[in-house]
Structures are given as C-alpha cells and as structure tokens.
Amino acid sequence: MRAFPTNLFSPKVEVFNPDHSFRVSGVTRWRLCRILAGLPGVTFTRKPRLLGSGALPYAEFQFRGLRFQVADGGDTGGDGLWIEPQDGLAHPVELRALREQAEKLVLPKCT
After folding, report:
1. Which of the two residues, 5 and 60, has the higher pLDDT score?
2. What domain range includes position 82?
3. Per-residue b/e over 10-49, b at no fewer than 16 CB within 10 Å?
4. Does residue 69 sit within a domain?
5. Total-model pTM
6. Per residue, what are the HEC states of 76-101?
7. How many domains does the chain have?
8. Is 15 within the bounds of a domain?
C-alpha cells in the first residue's frame, strides 16, 4: 500500500512515555508555540529561536508552576518537536493538558 504525500506530512501528536514527554510532528516550532500559548497559564520564558542548536531547546515555558521545553529530541528525537519538563521528572497531569491542547488545535478535523 502506498502512502500519499499528505499522509506523510500531516500533523501528528505521538506519545511514547506519557508521564515524561510527547512529540508533535508536521508543524513548525512557531506554530506549536502559538498553540501552547493559547492554553491558560502558559507563559514563555524563551521564545522560539530562528536557528536551532542541539545543545539548547527551541523554546521554554512555564505551566502550572513547572518549567517545560520544546526541543528536537537530540540524537533519538527523530522528526518532530518534543515537549518535556525541564526537571526530567514525571508530570502526567500537566503533560496531558498540554497534549490535549496540541491535539485539539494541530490535528486535522474529520468531518
């Protein structure tokens, strides 16, 4: 079965470890940050940068008193942008709220 190009580049939200991170692909870092900024309580402390670096996250923000980052996932990240807590601890409730916001506004509507 062949995949159509629209299926290859359509936005996706994927969860591999729901307590620690999720990945969004098919959107730019600027669009993803605008989507996350629409969630009440999200405040960006570092806006998305024009050029990326493997050593620094693309953007950083606070949500419910916790610090999160938008990163490329490093060597194992693959295609997409990873949203993860900066402290490396599990925050399933906050990540679920961020993921639901991303799913609601990123994924195409089926009608």
Report:
1. 60
2. 30-106
3. ebbbeeeeeebbbbbbbbebebbbebbeebeebeeeeebe
4. yes
5. 0.81
6. HCCCCEEEEECCCCCCHHHHHHHHHH
7. 1
8. no
CA dist 8 to 31, 100, 104, Å?
19, 22, 20
In a domain, 8, yes or no: no
Please report the pLDDT score of residue 78 as a whole number.
Answer: 66
**Please, which residues bridge with residue 104 across strands?**
none
Give the Cβ contact number of residue 109 at 10 Å.
5
State the alpha helices, DSSP H only, in the chain: 5-9, 29-37, 92-106
State the Cα–Cα distance between residues 108 and 106, nearest whole angstrom.
Answer: 6
Q: How far is CA 15 from the centre of its chain?
A: 10
Burial class (CB in 10 A: 0-12, 13-18, 19+), 87: exposed
pLDDT digits (tens, 9 = 90+) for 72-103: 876 665 678 999 999 999 999 999 999 999 89
Question: CA-to-CA distance for 37 and 106, rounded, in angstroms?
Answer: 13
